[in-house]
Amino acid sequence: MKLYYAPGACSLAPHIVAREAGIELELEKVDLATKKTESGKDFLTINPNGYVPALEYEPGQVLTEGPVIQQYLADKKPASGLAPANGTIERYRLQEVLTFINSEIHKTFGALFNPKVLPEVREERLGTLRKRFGSIDTKLAGKQFLLGDKFSVADAYLFVMVSWASHVGLDLSALANLAAFQKRVAARPAVQAALKAEGLMK
């Protein structure tokens, strides 16, 4: 399998999941500005939407959208416990939190990475993110991870989203549960290996 990624982008989440599950992935970096891959391919022929992640799970067959790819990888190695079994209420709880992160946090960041964003839009987005991360902070009270005491694909996704905060001037230091979560996840060997592979950590 091949994961098309950009360093530190949301593609870091499925990269972490693969390493947590012990799945061997070939990595191919994508320049999101030029839409060219490291080997010179036109990335738009792989994912016409032009964004990462994209997972080529077999020759010519590609999955897109991070939460889908993360669950696919977890289901390839069910013994890893990275996603509850399909059809269980626990799996729907996982999908509930993945959807929240995807629609309420991830998408809200978008405008903040645009240098031309209007100041009033920037402030509105930062305010929304403070509320959303505050909700997550409350959810983490008394728990190690989002679904309890076991690391899941949702935690990989949340870790990446929290890592973006400092890049857009969002101070989350007052959210103690979230800060402890981030430190806990950052210490995981699979997370450190993914960060090193993407050149984000020495």
Structure description:
The protein has seven helices and five strands. It is of the alpha+beta class and 202 residues long. It folds into two domains: 2-79 and 190-197, Glutaredoxin (3-Layer(aba) Sandwich); 83-188, Glutathione S-transferase Yfyf (Class Pi), Chain A, domain 2 (Up-down Bundle). It has a five-stranded mixed β-sheet with strand order 3-2-1-4-5. Strand 4 (54-58) and strand 5 (61-64) form a beta hairpin.
Could you please say which CATH topology of the largest domain applies here?
A: Glutathione S-transferase Yfyf (Class Pi), Chain A, domain 2
Total of domains = 2
How large, in whole angstroms, is the Cα Rg? 17 Å
Mean model confidence by pLDDT: 97
Low-confidence stretches: none
Give helix % range. 40-55%
SSE pattern, N- to C-terminal: EHEEEEHHHHHH
What is the spatial order of strands in the main beta sheet? 3-2-1-4-5
Amino-to-carboxy terminus distance: 25 Å
Largest sheet: 5 strands, mixed
**Approximate strand percentage:** 5-15%
